[in-house]
Every structure is written in C-alpha cells, then in structure tokens.
C-alpha cells in the first residue's frame, strides 16, 4: 500500500460522516492543515482512493478549498452498487459525465431497478472518458442501450457484467440456482466487435460455450467464474493477446458439468482437440485461481501450457492426503518448468480427515526466495490454513481461532502482519479458550485485523464482560460495513441478554460506516423485543436481514425501522413451508394499510422490501410461487 492510498483511507474514515452544518466546519478544517499545502495534482491522486459519496457528501463540506478541488477533479468513479436513489439523482446532476472514468451500476437486492432509472436521467454516450463499465443485473430489456455504448465507445477498455442468481424450484424439496440476464449472443457480439481489453463476469462453464467461438479475441485480461479444462484450452488458443487470467475454479473432467439441455463445446472431435492442446504454449504472464479444488497433478497439467508465467496465485481447498502426498511434486515442478516465475501466492484450506495427522510434517519451501509458507492448525473443526508470505488477495471468511498451532518458516510469526492486513471477512466465536489477556493479542503497530469490513459474531452462552475492549483491539471498527450475529442457543439467560445488549450498544457506537446488519438467529430475535433491537442499532444502518418469525413481530419491525432503505425477511429451512405465503401476504397488506411507499419481491426463501422508492405506490418486482 503506497503512502497516497494510506492518506486516502485515513481521509475516508475521518470525513465519512462530516457534519454538513456550516457552524461545525471549522473544527474539521483544523484536522487537515498539512493536506491543504499539497499541490492540486497530489490531492487529486489522494482523491483516487476515495469513493464518490465520501468526496461529494463529506469531504466537499470540510472547507472551501476542498469544495473547489473536488469540483475540478476529473477522475470520478461512480460506484452505485449501494446508494440511495436520491443520492444517485443528486450525483448525476452535479457531476459532468465527461469527468467520470469508471461507472458501476447495479440491480441487485439493495438497488432494484437502479439501472433503468440511471438510463432515464443520463445518456451513456455523454460519458466520453469512461474507461470501465461494471453492470450487476438480471434484466434483458434495457441491455440494448448498454450494448450500443460498449460497441461504440472509443474510451472504454474494461467491461464487467455479473448476472444475478435466481432460485428455481425443481420439486417440492429441490431447488437449483440459475443466472439471469441478457442473451449470451449479445455478449459474444461485444467480444467480436468491440475493443475491450479487460472482461470480467460470473458466467458458468455451460454458458461459456455460447461465447467461445473460433475467432481471435483482443482480451488482455480475463476474469470468469469457472470453466472446464477444454474451455481453458480454447481460451488460450483463441486469445493470443491474453496476459492475465483469473479463474474461480477449473473443472478437469467435463462430464456432468453442463446444465440440462446443454451440449459439450468440444464433443465433436476429442482426439483432435487433445492433440492440438499439446501444442499450446501461451505467453500468459499472470494466472490466478480463486477457488481451486483440483489435484496437484491437474495443476501441473494446466501450468505446462503457460511456461512464461511470472505471477501465480492459488486460493482454494484440498484434502490433507492429497496435500501431503503431492506437494513435493509441485515443489520440484515449479522451479524447473516455470523458470521465469517471480512470485507465487498460495492460500489453501486443508481439511483433515485423519485424527493421527502429524503436526510436525515437513514444510513446503522453495529453494529460491520467492515465497515462504506458514501453517495454522485449527483443532475445531480440524483443518489447516496453509498460506504464503506475502499472502495473495483472498475472498474467504476467515475463522479467528485462538486454539491453534502455528508453524512457520518465518522467524517471528507474530511480526508477520501480511495475513492480518489481507483479511476482509472474519468470524469470531467466543469460548472459554479465548485469551482475554489483552497483552497476548495487542499489536504494537495497531489493530490485529485492521482492514476487516465484514464481521460475524458467533454468539454462545459465554459472553465475557470485557468483550467490547477485546473487539476494539482486534478490529478497526470504523472500517466495518457489515455485521452478522449468529446465535446457536435456544435459551439465553437474562444476565446474558443484559450483558450482550450493553456491549453490543458500545460496539455499534464505534461502527461509523456500518450499513448492513444480518440477524441470522431466530432465537436472538425472540430473546430481544423489537424496541430493544431498534435502540441498539445505529441510524446509519440502511439494510437489515431478519429471520422470519411471527407475523406480529414482523409488523412491529417494519413499523419501527422506518429509516431503512430496505429489509429482508429470510425463512430458514424448518420454517420455509410454515405459513410463509400467509405471512408475506399479511405483511404486505399491513404496509399498504399504513400507506407506505414500497416495492417488494417474494422468493422461495425470503421477502425483500424496499422503502421510499421512485414510484409513490406499492409495486411488485417478482414473485415466486410455492
């Protein structure tokens, strides 16, 4: 992380909720005297690390100088994935579209119909300097406008499209997930006719068959969710300009990997394809696996196709038998076959099946000084975190467990903060084994996990009196944007509830950027009354997911939490078929009786409600029948 990014992140945390009242500006100006002495160019480079809401709704109100500097800024990145319609409207009218270089639009659960609204107030063709367009959606009817822009834009070099998941019912107790969005033929046309250099998507392997054509693509950077081995070969063959590939996972065996009704792209001549694959020698520079689950032998087979790799990252999981048996094979292969490799990053979750697994096994080490590796043995559940130093970027839910053994090639593992700085999502469970001697965990350089944004508490009957102090040392709570509370007990004592309420209230006070709250536990919602929950949760939280309990409590929740942008009631498996339709209908009728401005969407597992939306009347987005 460079110095400008550090300054930018500090500015973000300090000004995110800067008061907009004139009489309170002066004290905030005093916090940034040295910044105002910097040149406009340097300040604009610092602004590159701030989001649009921080720039326009916080930092712009600090002082007159910042107000003028922000209006002169010409590298705005519009991220509308989590924003209110009123703020979106304000931003679009305030900022000249020619000053925008990145645009992120979303029609997900928190921002329904946002893209349609954006296109109704903005003309995409006015964004003449746009470099990157990111679309998260599930609709087809408005994609024509986006499609035309991608094809005609001279500035656009990066295009990302993420399809939303829809749950469809197969039988009474069986469901499957499908991706919904524009036709794949439209996406394929973009590949053939545009100048896109970077493409990202969550398309699945059976959908790639429509897109992969025997033409040469101009991509230099490609990110996809997963593909088959044969499709990976085709990507390399038809994309000679590719320099980086990021894969969610790769399926080595094509059989059984296609959806019903889909045919295999490579079924016509397997022998011929196999011979051609042996001739592939691609000049790929960087290869990343985000969810690798294959064997090490298969990994060797993949890496042989790209002998010029300089950067390799492997994030995934495997079994301990596979890891112990074949790791030495990989250790010998990499230095010999990939002699240009400059860096390797690994993070593997290794599942232990043998109770007699030896903790003192030989460490995986490279002869060169390209990387070092660390083991962390977790006793419950039994697994190993195996990762390199420096650690790659990871997208996992890291379990903080103090009952673990660490073996490391580093001399002082406690001084290695690489892992702690990379972790964004954590799960913290309090048991009697948690070391509440703060001297054991306090770091001289700050928080233990300074960059966590998604924090999950596993609530047990054990609630220490000093939990708030412990959490404040572990995490920078001002960075937290989402908190989840999971309860695994059907009986909470009055003393436990009282202690938990008091300390949660103190923790929430420090979460200035908290916007999302997930209450997983039915028992937790039953133990607390709605008024008590409302009094604990900060007013800046805009989305809450509740378990669907009794209809009367659900009515109380929608009446009490009027400040929310949206809320979701989720049915657990044992409650899913228990008067779900009646509760949905009863809650919707209640909101209509209250004359609330809202939209809603029913699915098999949840009821989503959006408040104070564009239209002044109730409307339904989609409905899934039982």
TrEMBL record:
Gene3D superfamilies: 1.20.1280.50. SMART domains: FBOX (SM00256). InterPro entries: F-box-like_dom_sf, F-box_dom. It comes from the Eukaryota. Residues 32-70 form the F-box domain. SUPFAM superfamilies: F-box domain (SSF81383). This is F-box domain-containing protein. It comes from Adineta ricciae.
């Amino acid at each position: 992380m460079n110095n400008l990014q550090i300054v930018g992140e500090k500015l973000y945390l300090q000004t995110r909720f800067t008061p907009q009242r004139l009489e309170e500006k002066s004290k905030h100006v005093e916090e940034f005297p040295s910044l105002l002495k910097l040149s406009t160019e340097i300040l604009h480079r610092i602004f590159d690390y701030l989001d649009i809401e921080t720039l326009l709704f916080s930092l712009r109100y600090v002082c007159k100088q910042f107000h003028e500097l922000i209006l002169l800024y010409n590298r705005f990145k519009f991220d509308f994935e989590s924003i209110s319609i009123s703020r979106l409207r304000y931003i679009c009218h305030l900022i000249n579209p020619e000053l925008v270089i990145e645009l992120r639009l979303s029609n997900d659960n928190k921002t329904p119909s946002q893209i349609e609204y954006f296109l109704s107030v903005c003309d995409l063709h006015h964004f003449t300097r746009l470099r990157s367009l990111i679309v998260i959606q599930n609709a087809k009817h408005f994609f024509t406008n986006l499609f035309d822009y991608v094809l005609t834009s001279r500035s656009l070099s990066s295009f990302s499209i993420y399809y939303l998941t829809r749950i469809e019912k197969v039988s009474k107790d069986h469901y499957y997930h499908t991706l919904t969005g524009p036709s794949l033929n439209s996406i394929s046309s973009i590949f053939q006719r545009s100048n896109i250099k970077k493409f990202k998507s969550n398309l699945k392997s059976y959908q790639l068959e429509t897109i992969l054509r025997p033409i040469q693509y101009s991509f230099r950077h490609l990110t996809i969710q997963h593909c088959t081995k044969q499709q990976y070969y085709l990507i390399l063959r038809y994309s000679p300009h590719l320099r980086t590939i990021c894969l969610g996972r790769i399926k080595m065996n094509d059989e059984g990997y296609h959806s019903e009704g889909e045919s295999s792209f490579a079924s016509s001549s397997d022998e011929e394809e196999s011979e051609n694959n042996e001739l592939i020698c691609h000049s790929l520079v960087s290869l990343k696996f985000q969810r690798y689950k294959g064997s090490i032998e298969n990994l060797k087979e993949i890496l042989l196709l790209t002998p010029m790799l300089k950067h390799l990252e492997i994030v995934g999981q495997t079994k301990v038998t596979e890891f112990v048996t074949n790791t030495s094979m990989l250790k010998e292969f990499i230095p010999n076959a990939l002699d240009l490799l400059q860096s390797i990053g690994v993070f593997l979750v290794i599942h232990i099946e043998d109770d007699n697994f030896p903790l003192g096994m030989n460490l995986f080490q490279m002869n060169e000084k390209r990387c070092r590796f660390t083991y962390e043995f977790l006793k419950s559940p039994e697994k190993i975190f195996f990762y390199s130093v420096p650690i790659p970027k990871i997208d996992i839910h890291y379990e903080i467990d103090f009952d673990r053994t660490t073996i490391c090639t580093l001399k002082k593992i406690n001084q290695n903060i690489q892992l702690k700085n990379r972790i964004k999502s954590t799960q913290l469970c309090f048991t009697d084994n948690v070391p509440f001697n703060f001297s054991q965990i306090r770091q001289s350089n700050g928080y233990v996990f300074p960059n966590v944004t998604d924090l999950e508490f596993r609530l047990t009957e054990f609630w220490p009196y000093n939990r708030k102090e412990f959490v404040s040392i572990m995490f920078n709570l001002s960075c937290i944007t989402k908190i989840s509370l999971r309860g695994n007990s059907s009986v909470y004592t009055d003393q436990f509830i009282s202690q938990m309420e008091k300390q949660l209230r103190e923790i929430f006070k420090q979460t200035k950027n908290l916007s999302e709250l997930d209450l997983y536990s039915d028992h937790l919602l039953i133990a607390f009354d709605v008024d008590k929950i409302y009094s604990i949760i900060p007013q800046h939280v805009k989305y809450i997911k509740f378990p669907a309990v009794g209809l009367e409590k659900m009515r109380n929740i929608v009446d009490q939490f009027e400040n929310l942008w949206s809320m979701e009631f989720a049915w657990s498996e044992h409650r899913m078929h228990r008067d779900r339709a009646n509760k949905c209908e009863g809650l919707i009728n209640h909101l209509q009786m209250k004359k609330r401005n809202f939209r809603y969407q029913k699915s098999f597992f949840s009821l989503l409600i959006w408040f104070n939306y564009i239209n002044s009347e109730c409307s339904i987005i989609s409905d899934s029948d039982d």
